Amino acid sequence: MRTLLVLVAVAVASALGVVYTKYRSRMLFAEVQRLEQALDAYDEEWGQLQLEQNTFAEHSRIEKMARARLGMVLPARESTLYINP
User: How far apart are the two ends of the chain, measured CA to CA in Å?
Assistant: First the structure.
């Protein structure tokens, strides 16, 4: 009789362990899904920031802003000095 009670207790403990493990597995899977969605959002934002950086770094845009905002102009060809190394 005592052996039967021990076996029943072990079976119940095992069943509870299975239930807890399944629950924990589902919670971890949900967390992984949430983190993957966040990673996708960060990847998309990174791509947009790279495009924005490329746009801001274009030579023609910088030259246009230098002319408009700072009043800068290219020097005349004859006033440019070239120095040999």
Answer: 100
**H helix intervals, the chain:** 2-56, 59-70
Please state, in angstroms and rounded to a whole number, the distance separating the CA atoms of residues 26 and 45. Answer: 29
Spatial distance between the Cα atoms of 8 and 37, rounded to a whole number of angstroms: 44
Tokens of 25: 């597995």
- Distance separating alpha carbons of residues 3 and 29, to the nearest angstrom: 38
Is pTM beyond 0.90? Reply is no
Q: What is the pLDDT of residues 35-48, one digit of tens each?
A: 999 999 999 999 99
Q: Which long-range contacts (CB under 8 A, 24 or more apart) does 13-20 make?
A: none
Phi and psi angles of residue 75, each rounded to the nearest 5 degrees, phi first: -70, 155
